[in-house]
Each structure stands twice: as structure tokens, then as C-alpha cells.
Amino acid sequence: MTKNVLLLFTLLITSVITAQDDQIFLHNGKTVEGKVIRVEEYTIDFVYSGEEAENTFGKYAIAKIIYGSSGREQDVTEKIEVAGEDDWEKVVILEDKSYIAGLKKVGEVRGKTGMINFQTGNTGDKKAEKKLKQEAAEAKCAFILMTSDKSTTSARNTFGSSQAIKTGVTYTY
């Protein structure tokens, strides 16, 4: 009898302690329980229940957080649905590795323009970016981590042809 009461008391204390955990709802359908330590502009730092090591998720991976101590619900980001190449404008280009934490790597993409004469300022960049996003959207990926963004200029003719080349790694939920 005493063992049963002790077991019941232990279970009650454990459930009270875990009820204080924050719940982090990811866009991939998983839920993480722990304690949110910091909410930054693009990342959230937390500690898993029963652990001490700090972990980080990029906000793009998180739908919402429910804080255990208050029950307050905080929406973090909306899920970006990319069904195919026609959704290329929805693709988000990320420039910092910390933003991809919690996302799943899919593959590499490349967008470039041909050598173009009389190209004005951003024209080549915009075309290369569009091609990059279209390739990611075709793979049904909502995110690209930019790994290279360069322009080249040819000295072969007096007008100086230029080419924009962008490369990145695609990510999904």
C-alpha cells in the first residue's frame, strides 16, 4: 500500500512538473517539449525536458509555442506551402545558417543568366534569383540557403557582357 501511494505521489509530481513545459509545435507535425530560453528575431533557443543543453530552431520551422507556465499561445510563422514550380514566388531565400535549424535539407539548386550585353543593375540578379526559386519550387522546397551569389563580367567585347550566378541548398519542413 505504501509503495502504491509513493508511486502515485511520484507520478503526480512528475505530471505537475511536465505540465510546466513549453510546447513547441513544428510545421512538420512534431511537437517538442521543453523550456523556451530566448526568442530572437529569426531563432528560438530552448532546452528539452530533462536536459540542460541549449538547442536552437529557426523560426521558419515553428508554427506556434504554448507556454506551460501561463498557457499563453504565441504564433511564430505561417507554413509556406509550395506545391510545384508555379509557387516559385513563395520560396524564401535565407542567408544565415541559423535560420535553417529544424528544417530538412533536400538538395542543391543553381540559377544563372546567360552572358548578356547591356544588362542593367539588378536585371541579371533578378533573373538568376527567379531561376533559383523555380528550381526549388519544382522540388517542393519552401526555403533556399544561399551559398554563392556572384556576377561575372566578360572582357571579350568592348561592352562587357555580364552573367549572374546564384547557388543554394534547398530545405523543406
Distance between the termini: 49 Å
Radius of gyration from CA coordinates: 23 Å
Helices and strands, in order, run as HEEEEEEEEHEE
Strand order of the largest sheet: 4-3-2-1-5-6
Report on the biggest sheet.
Answer: 6 strands, antiparallel
Which percent range describes the beta-strand content?
A: 35-45%
The strand count comes to: 10
Structural class: alpha+beta
Note down, in words, how this protein is organized.
By secondary structure, this protein is of the alpha+beta class. It has 2 helices and 10 strands, in the order H-E-E-E-E-E-E-E-E-H-E-E. The chain has helices at residues 2-19, 123-138; strands at residues 22-26, 31-39, 43-48, 54-58, 62-66, 73-75, 92-94, 104-112, 143-153, 162-172. The termini are far apart. The relative contact order is 0.15.
How are the SSEs placed, and which strands pair?
Layout: H1 2-19, E1 22-26, E2 31-39, E3 43-48, E4 54-58, E5 62-66, E6 73-75, E7 92-94, E8 104-112, H2 123-138, E9 143-153, E10 162-172
